[in-house]
Amino acid sequence: MLTLLGQDHGDGSFCDRLSRRNFLQIGSLGLTGLTLPRLLQAETGKTAKKRQKSVIMIYLVGGPPHQDMIDLKPEAPKEIAGPWRPISTNVPGIEICEAFPRLAQSMDKLVLVRSIVGSQSGHDAIQCFNGHDPRKLTPQGGWPQFGSTVAKLQGPHIESAPPFISLCYPCTHGPYNEPGPGFLGLSQSPFRPMGPTRHDMVLNGISLERLAARKQLLQSIDNFKREADASGMMTGLDTFTEQAMGVLTSSQLAEALDLSKENPQTVARYGTGDPTKFIDSNGAPRVPQSMLVARRLIEAGARVVTLNYSKWDWHGGKNNSIFKREAEDFPVFDQCVSALLEDLHQRGLDQDCTVAIWGEFGRTPKISSRVGRDHWPRVNSAILFGGGMKTGQVIGATDRLGGEAVDRPVTFPELFATLYHNLGIETQHTTVDDFSGRPQYLVEGDARPLPELI
Predict the structure, then answer these.
(1) Is 336 within 8 Å of 270 (Cβ atoms)?
(2) How far does the chain reach from its first CA to its final CA, in angstroms?
(3) Is the pLDDT of residue 237 over 90?
(4) Quick one: which H or E segment has residue 146?
(5) pLDDT 10s digits, 422-451
């Protein structure tokens, strides 16, 4: 039943001169057969937003060993192959490391890229976060990272959630950290619930665990603002830190960050790690629950969520061989990544959320005398899933030693063009202005999205 009221003239009557107590009740609208349910459905259709497209980017700090994970060479000499053996997956003809049984049974939902070329040789996260080669000339201010560009081009999906959220833990080795918004400016920085903004607020009585206590939260923020105003600090806060003050009071975002709101069985499926334990002191913590938080933030409205995971720079050494470290990391990685993959499919996010997992380079084919693998920029690898992509396939191949790409070389610009494409951003025609007002294309050269995936 619908109640139609006229305009109030201030004298107790409406434009049709009926009093406030008069009303017209309509059960259906008979004009041209349009019923009220159809009218409401049509109105809803006018205002409905497009389905949200999103990306979760997982940076494996330090460079993961492709030949021990997804591109094993069991027929190679022992000093190349190592001790791990390949196992079959649920896609005939595709094999991966025996330490990843869960992922092996989900291969039909995965894409393995075994032939990334053009990686840098040093530890620098920049190429993993913006797709640009740091050895090449860059515009003043530097290239913005992927999430910053998406935030600039698409803005928030919903008002209560920033478009770009970083779950990356600050690493003491500077080049391991995200490169920042570059020439797009600080207003396109990510919201960082794990970064300096969070530490500042923790010092004033705010932590992620207390976000649900809205009264206490608001009081803490008020105290922080008063202290900041008295010291003149507020003038130095960038726009995203100011936005964070309001964002943290959003119950939707607060609940996304609060894993106590999640089903305990789901949390257990991902596994948990210690966020205060930075691997080898300068890497990132091994925190599988970050992947669960990322999924929850995507559901809360974020377009891009980035996170760094563990440390994969295994040169070997006394009591620290690469294979010992792999035996520690691989099972945890298998558990949390397969949980994220399963979650996306169970929750209907697999067509809209793209997940990209990679590091800055591959590792040397030959195992060193210290029982480690060193930096190897000549070939790199990636794991992709979701985003409505064509999964259950391997792209590219390396030689018998895993040291050179011999089929379908893939570049970071192509991978980033694919991520942009999955968000509805066509890189052939889209530009962003640098500090000088000069338009800059999003990816290098004429890189196109990988046709095998779209």
Answers:
(1) yes
(2) 47
(3) no
(4) helix 146-154
(5) 999 999 999 999 999 999 999 998 999 999
